[in-house]
Amino acid sequence: MTTYKNEFCISTDKSKLDLDAIHEFLSTKAYWCLNIPKDKVQVALQNSLCFGVYKDEKQIGLARIITDFSTIAYLGDVYILEEYRGNGLSKWLMETIMSYPDLQGLRRWILLTGDAHGLYRQFGWTDIADPTRWMELHNKNVYQ
Hints:
Elements: E1 2-5, E2 8-11, H1 19-28, H2 38-46, E3 49-55, E4 58-67, E5 72-80, H3 89-98, E6 108-111, H4 117-121
GO molecular function: acyltransferase activity, transferring groups other than amino-acyl groups
Protein name: GNAT family acetyltransferase
Domain N-acetyltransferase: 8-140
């Protein structure tokens, strides 16, 4: 899937992904995975449905979906480079993801965010209704 808006493009074509650019952002600017090794990013991209955001051919954003395409999807690694923020790209990216044909009819979507609650709420996301049912095993220092 490839869609255009003005000079920007969103594509699920993995051959367009710029591993170096994605790794640069995730390992140095993404609070959720600072210092992530490049090989980990590469494997994550290979095993996810990826929505790349581009200006011309330059990678300026990303969102990864981890899913079984039937019941559940995890939305992660969502970003737009700082110099391109304020152009409605995050909202367009979410519209594109939420309307993607292979992701319709899922029972549950999940994500973790430290600062973008307002964006996701525009698309029906809410706080977890019953956090007492959720558990996690989180090694926040795994990349150090």
